[in-house]
Amino acid sequence: MSDQFDVVVIGAGPAGYVAAIRAAQLGLNTACVDKWINAEGKPSLGGTCLNVGCIPSKALLESSEKFHEAQEGLAAHGIKLSAAPEVDVPAMIARKDDIVSKLTGGIAQLFKSNGVTSIAGQAKLLGGRKVEVTDADGNVQLLQAENVIIATGSIPVDIPVAPANGDTIVDSSGALEFTEIPKRLGVIGAGVIGLELGSVWRRLGSKVVLLEAQETFMPMADQKVAKDFLRQLKGQGMDVRLGARVIKSSQTKKGVKVTYEDSKGEHTSEFDKLIVAVGRRPVTQALLSSEADILLDERSFIHVDDQCRTNQPGIFAIGDVVRGPMLAHKGSEEGVMVAEIIAGRQRHMNYDAIPSVVYTHPEVAWVGKTEEELKAAGEKYRVGQFPFAASGRAMAMNANQGMVRVIADETTDQVLGVHICGPQAGELIAQAVIAMEMQATAEDLALTVFAHPTLSEALHEAALAVHGEAIHMAAPRKKR
């Protein structure tokens, strides 16, 4: 005996729960299976993002930035504190947990209001679009679906030289649960996750060292922006060591000792805590039976086409478990696309206009091509750049470091990429995404009226600068 559904979604993270809600909105009988169990031993929707990823990390980033501003930023505004600010880490963690609880509970309510059947348990895809679900008590339920959407997400990559022990060596999830501020914090990996987690504890007082094996800092970002970002991080006291390959770690009485190699030889550093943030891998183990016959690539990602169809009819895969950037918003949009395709609608997704954001201080955000990518491809382009140092609003905010860069095609003037390092970059990048989605040119942005005084004027000026027409920046000297 099996339960019949039009759509069964496996995974209730940002990709899965959005897919389930949209499918239900379109009149499809939808179930969503998820295995997440929270610290209280109860099922919790939202996946990694809401439970131990995007949301809790941003809550701590915001709290740590408030503390840092109280310590060092308020004086510039003429605000004096009668006593030095103090950090209550347990209260900070409790606030984070409360936000997570409200949001995960909110998804449960959204499921209820949209008529999505929520099923807690471990799912396994069988042949014939059947899904076997085993709950926490070992009870097995069989679901029959016309369509299956796999949205099982990703988990942190483990490295043998620094195995997580839940105490002195932790992954990104464990780094959100520290009950006190480590005096010395090591982070293996200077990618987005490592930078954000390192920033949280640096602002709260930790001495932070980031060990990055690659020689290039943030190779996925525009390198002029990345270099400016690195300069600002170092100015904040972040110790970023590039070309540092960790070769072993060992427990000590006070924490953990890490040995790494770089161009100058072998070195050791000791830390109270060590965060391993070297990337994430797709969750496909124990998910697929041999009868399901789903094609995986060499890195265990599920192989899909541009509309997230697998090699089996009626079975789709979305989010971190497929190709492309591991971003919550990318997975969510794939979920909407797939739900609409199942409902018989025509839907595509523009993978060239997916924004990326690093929620440090300053924030870094980008969309589209980098200058390095265009050079490598031999494409002709123009670049307009504008510094926040010339932005009245940024100066008023005491946040006038960084820049905006707009890259446009030399012939058509179409915007190919926008890269921002500075205040509220994660919000500003949305304007660039809309422009690129509408195939706007740099001139289109230049002719648009931006409110004054706002941070977004920096985007306007950068677009003007593409053709050497920026108003609030000295014109470059003409070559004789």
TrEMBL record:
FAD binds at K58, T152, G153, S154, D320, M326, L327, A328, H329. Residues 354-463 form the Pyridine nucleotide-disulphide oxidoreductase dimerisation domain. Its EC number is 1.8.1.4. Its cofactor is FAD. Keywords: Cytoplasm, Disulfide bond, FAD, Flavoprotein, NAD, Nucleotide-binding, Oxidoreductase, Redox-active center. Residues 5-335 form the FAD/NAD(P)-binding domain. One of its GO terms (biological process) is 2-oxoglutarate metabolic process. The keyword NAD applies. Transmembrane segments: none annotated. Binds 1 FAD per subunit. Its main location: cytoplasm. GO terms for cellular component: cytoplasm. Belongs to the class-I pyridine nucleotide-disulfide oxidoreductase family. The active site is a redox-active disulfide bond. This is Dihydrolipoyl dehydrogenase.
